[in-house]
Amino acid sequence: MKMVIPTIPVRELVPSLYCVDAEDGQKLFLLISKSFRDEKNAITLSFEGIELITSAFLNTAIGQLYRDFSEETIKTSLKVEGMSQEDLGLLKRVVDTAKIYYKDPDRMERTLREVLGE
């Protein structure tokens, strides 16, 4: 028997066609986290009907998952659909950065301060 993977329609969660607000990203992050932690479910995020996605939204919604869950858990439990190639590229950059950051956040913070001359 094939397991049905629940789909979260992002368009129903975000009050506009634009996924730009980190606050909206936080709502999505909490839903994903609850699904992973409490229900042990794999989920699919559907971005059908969304016209614009920013890195601020993706950093909050998906990037911070790498703080709380293993890369393997995220890779096997989270799927996305309905994203343009451009948005998939942005998602890849967000994920790559999150993996580096959450591997050693103190080091990343020090590096950023050095680059910014603080």
From TrEMBL:
Domain DUF4325: 24-87
Name of this protein: STAS-like domain-containing protein
